[in-house]
Structures
1.
Amino acid sequence: MARIAVIGAGMGAMAAAARLAVAGHQVAVYERGRTYGGGVGRFERDGFAFDTGPGLLHLPAVYRDLFVKTGKETLEQSVELTQVDPASRHVFADGTKVTLPNASRAGVVRALDDAFGAGAGERWSDLVNRAREAWDATRRPLLEEPLRADWRTLGRDPYPAPVRRGISGWLRRDGGQPATLADVARRELKDPRAVALLESHAVAHSLDPRTAPAAAAVLPYLEQTFGSWYVRGGMRALADALYERCRARRVRFSFDAEVVGILEKDGRAAGVELADGSVAEADAVVAAVDPALLPALLGGAEPWREGDVRPGGGPGSEPGGAAGRLTVLVALRGARPQGTAHRTVVHAPDRAAELAAVFGAAGDDQDGLREPCPHPTVTVLRPDDPTTRPDEDHEAVTLTATVAPHGPVDWMDGTAAEEDAERLVAAAEAAIPGLRDRLLWREVRTPADTAADTGATGGAVPGPALAGAEGRFLRPANLTRMPGLYLAGGWAHPGGGLAHAGMSGAMVAGLIVDGAEWRGSQ
């Protein structure tokens, strides 16, 4: 039985802790904040309750496997999990509206043909089919196995070029550069509303479609194929269930316990030092924190070998973009109308202006302050969940926009944050007529709040790892240069998102239990 110290109590950290405890190890988790869950938070007031992080779950199989492997109760016995149908409703600036069914390719084709015109659905279906090929080619090495030393093979974009008579090299830009998701959207979908639909999946995952590889098309493929799921009580209920599973497996949690150093003995990780001066010795350390913070915890040393993927992508590469979330939690009088879509996306009227506000203008140095987008894309979540509201005569609604992290935008400026929140409310009126008349109160959360809660630099939210773009959208490997030090969570391989965080926990547990040659469950 080994002693394992885990830094952080986010979803990836707890996934690793539960699996390691079941394997017979003594696991202690040290969390700088007052609670567990990382970005999966909860805000409650006056009988209303809101998720402050992700509001939907994709690829629930990751957590089904976790709960099966760590206890008697399955995921469905631990939380009430339901499919969201329709998957989403979309409102465009020209007044077009389209409702997409959950996990139904034929239904999506019909909906897009009806909304955008004949042929739009087939073009979307062709793109999704090519995305399936990219998924099949990279699913195991990118998402189910630890990042290999020969990770450069994942630098090649797996998205296949469409077969077009008389056209070759479709996945190359002018000048021979690999095509981006924006290139694919423009060339294959034609209709600007369909382009906005595709690109919105990338932006929602903190990815800039102007630089993200064509393989980012797997994001709508995953949602369309495996569906969108909601947990009664919100995603925080999933974090609660995972925390209780850890406790049942005798994982020990320490909150308000900031780790300020990783101990080294005989060239390997040997424990952690806490802010109060105490030391916790360990045989292995799992760091579920932003890897950019690791050198400070290691006394200035870097945990990466020469040639390893580093924070921001391959060695020497520039980061693939970072983004945060502006969230407005809205308490409304009046019942949720029957038949209301759980998720509505109100698209920005000027996509180019939005991308420049979030990720910076194409070709700029990214160092100056940016002005927030005056008309951002806003996701409106309206769960039909009695646990989120005081009674049936009220409704809890969450408005979210992807924004620049704290730094490029000063999110500590309360006045500016309120002005930006007002823009979200104005946009959301396209999804909720009479919103202002029903408004009781609202609570605004910015990337500065995310940074305070999670420790992530600038309050950025990590995107998923992607193949292509010469590895710039990969994440640092779970196995580090220092023996006994492992990385988990959204900032490590295979990247951000609830499912990906859960995968990282499985990878770290496999590496610790079975050794560095472990290559995933067979």
Note: The chain is about 30% helix and 20% strand.
2.
Amino acid sequence: MLKNSTTFFRHAALVALLAAATPAVAGPEAAVPTLRYTLSMPAPQTHYYEVKMEFGGFPAEYTDVKMPVWTPGSYLVREYAKNVEGFQAKTTGGQALAAEKINKNTWRVRHPKQTNFQVSYRVYAFDLTVRTSFIDGEHGYLNGASIFMYPADNKSLGSTVVVEPAAGWTKVSTALRPAPGKFTFKSSSYDELVDSPMEIGNHKVLEFTANGTPHQVAMFGAYNAPDDTKLLADMKKVCEEAHRVVGQNPLDHYLFIVHNLERGGGGLEHLYSTTLEVSRNAYGSEASYKSFLGLVAHEYFHLWNVKRIRPVALGPFNYDQENYTNMLWVSEGITTYYSKIINERAGYTSREEFLNGLANDISTVENTPGNRVQSAAESSFDAWIKSYRQTENSRNSEINYYAKGDLIGTVLDLNIAEATKGEKHLDDVFRLLYDTYYKKANRGFTDKEFQDAVAQVAGRRYDEFFQNSVYGTKTLDYATALGYAGMTLTSEPLGGGTLGANFSNRTGKLLVTSVVRDGAAWNGGLSVNDELILINGVAPGEESFKTLVQSPVGTEVKLQVRRDGLLRDVTLKMLPNPDRRFRIQPAANPTAAQKRVLERWLGPQI
């Protein structure tokens, strides 16, 4: 080997010299990929959208095209692909391309030597919720995840979206930015497209400006607001109060899509918009109108909390499967807390109303048996399999992360205010998270980083609190926290005896609909769907049932039930009602320190 080394190095040097002297030949530049959607609805009364996707600059032999299985903000696998029909692929010249479905939500399009091609399909849409899509002869609404597919390996690719409304429809409301052409829009990525719902039809469009940003309100359906001017002024005030929490405005535009229906259905947050479903009569009474403003505050505050200040698992999204996090009690629960705080600070809820509502919230959570079984973190993680799939036993085994997170936020806020002598509060935690993770790191935060942010603002750590009452089921110390603000918390038993079961009259049959953990029915063997035949030997009627539910503690009750077609005898003994009613009252003579905490918590008395 060594004897040939000189020859080798001379040859290598000659090759290198020739290469250096030879001019490089530029190869053809790869085409930049492009994507264009056309959304049409030629027969809206049939409840179908038609979608065409035009791919440009895709050089591979095949492209996988996917439909999401869920939509951000609603933590349930909904299998949107079940509504897809007629998937086909063609060259730009109209020649059919081979396409096959390779799993439940993925189609593989083979396009050898065809960098440009088209895909088309139909989507059945007849489910009017904020999480799904709908179209009929009157209007169309779409949630992007349930309508638009995406190239599996190019999720970050921007796109152009052309909307062709049904005949006679003149308006398209969406937070997507306009592009040249009528009803033409652009998205910077698939994530933005999914996060920009559309209302299409002849709806009313209202406008206001908040925090220097233009806001639109797309109002579908008749509604009983006596004065749009007042409605817009109130929404503006809520938006401006929400802005004060973080103190920074990430918007240059914002859209509310409001569906006024026979009954409301909640809301869903998006990056520059939200969709609200409310009763068309929600504006006619003080209570229902305040509830509407609470929904506005909740969804609007989401533009900070979860859309920008978010757990690390919630973006960029994996649309193929569940995206697990322990932190929905922050994203949803603390947002619920702020929706109430915002309306109290804005003056739409009195301090007394706020405190009464808080006492009711404590009662609801503490009287839920599942609160002693499932932690807030576990409730968040298991949202995908439990929260949206309620059963007759859910109340015994689960706690709602909205409700529990609301109360955790309350206790954290008061603890921070006390630790800083009324100088700081939970708002400051969200300001820190916004600056640190959204603006600087451009990512979400971990569980520990959230706890670190609380510690940094408060000047002390709350590791034991998080371990015991967030990741565990230890009861929150409401009384101590409220005491920091000069409030006293009391509770009293509801009293009386109880069977620990609920009943419902269904087609003339009195059926057991739920059984409460550790109650008389639970311990005595009464089951859901048992039909009540006899109460102490008497057929169930208004009087006998009234006597049953009002029986004192210790009373023995003999029931005959029908289960699986057979009669069974069940003997129960009435137990004390374990539920309690909580009340919050201001202390008679609060200290100066308590007054500082109270003002930092709820703002100055209005």
Note: The longest helix spans residues 228-246.
3.
Amino acid sequence: MGDTDLGQFGDVHERARENGARDGTPILWSARHGADPWINLFFRADEIVSKQRTTWRRYAYALVVWLNFLEQRGRLWFEASTRDYTDFKHWRMADSRNCGRVEGTSFDTDRAGLKRFYAWASSEYEVFNPIPSQSVQSGGHGSGRDPSRPAGAPRRQVKWLLRKAFEQWRDVGLRGYGFDGLRPESWHGFNEDRNTAFVEGLWGTGLRLEEWASLLDVELPAAHVDGRYPKAWLAKACAKGRRYGRNYRIPRAVVKAVAGYMDLLEGSRAEAIERAQREGRYERLPGLVIVTGHNPRRRALRVRTPHGGSATVSLDVLEPAERHRLFREAQGGLEPLAVWLSVNGMPHQAHSWENTFAAANSRVAEAWARSRWPGFEDLREEERRRRAAQCPLWARPHMMRHSYALGWYSILSAVWEQRLRGFTEAEKRAFREQFGDIWYQLATMLGHRNPQTTRDWYLAPFTALEVDYLMALIDGDQREAVDILLGRIAADNELVLSPVEVEQDLSPDDEGDDA
């Protein structure tokens, strides 16, 4: 829809406030049917408004794909049948005519969004719910499974990276190096310091993507604070679920990396701010808030009100979108409090980091393929893509959190064994009941309220490791010991990605054969 079409709506912001929309509320619009108010009201329902913006985006995307599928069938969303859903499931996952087929875990996200939408719509408008929801019983014991879920979809697909594999992915994907350790002179890493500091922070803190992406400069530990793991606070409004804030630790190396990115003379952040100031970008931002002070003990900001007064706002109530509108007046003009900025100087959206990871994965895959097959550049584009897709090294944002959990599980296992050495089994049980155990400590570090979540979804394949073996390894250098431990698992477990050893394939280039 072009800009000229927006005039018919009058003051869009005023209309949004009147109908309950918030910053980031999705609006679905069809070239054939226009905007359907029934669908768009879903994103204003109480049970949806309370969810995070990332959830809104996932639900909106699932609905768009579903509505496009129905449109090709000449059906409207309230006319959909169970057969439509079954055919949609087949088309998304298995239909050879669909070049964009997805795996079960991805379709599971679609299913969750559609199920939530039709549960709301059937109650609100009394329309038929085409998404099967009655559990299929197994063995008559009541342990059922939702039939709308794809059979091959586990509840969560968890993968881990060894530290050395992470460093290899980081150096090749974000810093421009090849697998030979050399960096070409043509490399221009405009955001290299930013991207490197960001992924090191995900790895070192165990925070979720949006949690780490919402960081403000006033929330960083001071550079002079002692200790290898300075303490920081995750605001309630930025934590998953928005129910409570918590302490977390930032490794000293990460603090230094972020400080390098924010350096006024050499960091790329200052360059981005100066660029935005010259172009007047900040002044044109609607709804910006001027911050005049910060009270670290109360974790609060002093802000200027629209009428020229002042007010105190707790950092705990500021959601990620609100944080992107926080600015201070500096000598060169306005500057954002958000740590992570785009090239244009504007606060970097959390979901945009997915593009950074995708670009890094593509760079790693191409570098790996060039190292493995001499003459790779001379192959047809389709064949180059096919070979690059075989690269065994890649990363996603949440893998950083999983890897953080696994590394600390290894360390805590060794610490607990040392602490309980000489205790009888009865005494060990009593000690754990009184003071908690590894899972309680690890859940605290990850921000899980229930340690069973940590055990079941993050580290289930590793819980059977013998602590004696852990102890034998932890006695040496911590990083090497943990990597040796995980490497043992990686040898027999495709869920753990190890560093890549590239061996050239000098066989004749037959593009029809697998490498």
Note: Residues 135-145, 151-155, 467-478, 511-515 have pLDDT under 50 and may be disordered.
4.
Amino acid sequence: MKPDTHTVQQLFERDVRYIVPLYQRPYVWNEDQQWAPLWDDITALLQHQENATSAELWSHFLGAIVLDQDQTVPGQIPRYTVIDGQQRLTTLQLLIAAAAKAIAAAGAEDDAALLRELVVNNPRKAKDIDRLKVWPTNANRSSFTAVMAVDGPPPGHADDPDNLIDEAFDYFTRQVADYLAGDGEEADGEAVRAERLRITLCDLLKVVSITLDRDDNAQVIFETLNARGTPLLSLDLVKNAVFRLASTQGCDTDALYEQVWRPQLDDEYWRQERRQGRLNRPVGELFLMHWLTMRLERVIPATELFAAFRQGVLTQSADAEALIRELCADAAIMRSFDTVSPASPEGEFFARFEPLDAGTVLPVVLLLFRSPEVTAERRRRALRILESWLARRVLMRLTAKNYNRLVPRLVAKMKADVGYADDALHEALSGAEGAVSRWPGDDEFVEFLRTRDIYGTVSAPRLVMALTAVEASLRSAKTEKAPITGKLSLEHLLPQEWENTWPLAGSETDAAARTARLHRLGNLTIVTHPLNSSMSNSPWAVKRAELNRHSVLPLNAKLAERDKWDEASIDEHGGWLAAQLVRIWPGPEGWDQS
């Protein structure tokens, strides 16, 4: 690498093209963090100039840029790919163009013309977009071209609210105009201040320009520079790498980006954070993690996503365009999980996805949806198998800590016979043994649900999910379609504080028997929050009347048929609920080979 210190004048005075690759981030610098501090530094230089001699003049170091010189034919303007420092270069160009506009408006046309020479190339050597010395990434090009015109944005130019180019140009235009106007106390006129500002911008602002040697690996340097802090997502590094490969393979990268990548993966959706397990992560990182696990059949730590992609996928790819299309197609599938119709079998699975905390198994789900060999019928069967395994385990409070090790093995078994992925999944889960991954059988599942305290040990969302699943199973063509618009809450039919309103005439043994059943599944139902509050600790006659009057759920209609609610009722209802859940979520023995 060849580092050199350049003034802004030296960096931009020759005809040159600094091109920001389309796969890098758009312009993100803003007033609070970058523009205002930069202008404060320039103001300090201007104030120092007023009283300093030439030998005492300060300069200000702006940081470094890293460039990779492109091969050009004789007669072409030299062209460089910007590896790092695109935000800095873009800001400098916006500052110079804004200063030229404000200085011209103040009447100092010579200074304005000298500044304009630093943003546009010689029109006799460069035409159209080649006129601009800096060419930003695709997302910023329209706005950048507009503000870099001689007179600034043309009339009717619409500010893009998602683009900070216009805001930066306007900010610097205002600051320069205010400086030129002065506060009325300076002896210097606008012409003197215009010249002083031009000299400051051209000669006192400096950058270190590092140009890579021919043997330097631009991609590795890009990754290293962007490894400080967390300025980029792993998905950004993937984009950079795969499009560099596409460029070397002669692909039309502009078309690939605009038509394939940008509509799918350059979207704020992928930067939103979502909880999986105990941590919140950007959706794009979760997608890449699950995609790599599905692709490579091994656990990929969140800290090694890009390294795994580069070593396990990129270096094996002879067709970058196909890889880009594959990534985008799979991203579209993953994103579609958020909008699956709740009335479909797939929708039922995803509606229960969050309470099941099933994020770890998404590589399995992605494989089912992306593989054309898997029919809709087999995919739905596989989803039910996966849901049954998960649901039985969470209701029995079995550990999920080693799911991430199990999932790659499931993926591998399903890939081995992907057309029969449902059978492969059933066989793999049925053969899992030990608390780490076993699939509980019917007898164990029913016994647990009938006799164990569920409330307070299994999370409320999971219990609501289970009872909602029973409720849905009771509906038929004769049932009114009455949508539940609010969230449902758990209701203890025998209240937790029962002593005053549910008198017990029996012995201490009877009281112990009642207390033992208080938090079992058989003593729980689901109601709306207002109905829950209204029933509170009321006796059964009141609760029964309230359920009859206000609940439209068939599950509660069945309860309201009972004349009394006691310990025997809890046992009986608990056994019935357990039997229903066995039918909804069959165990390993409850599936016919397809």
Note: The first helix runs from residue 8 to 12.
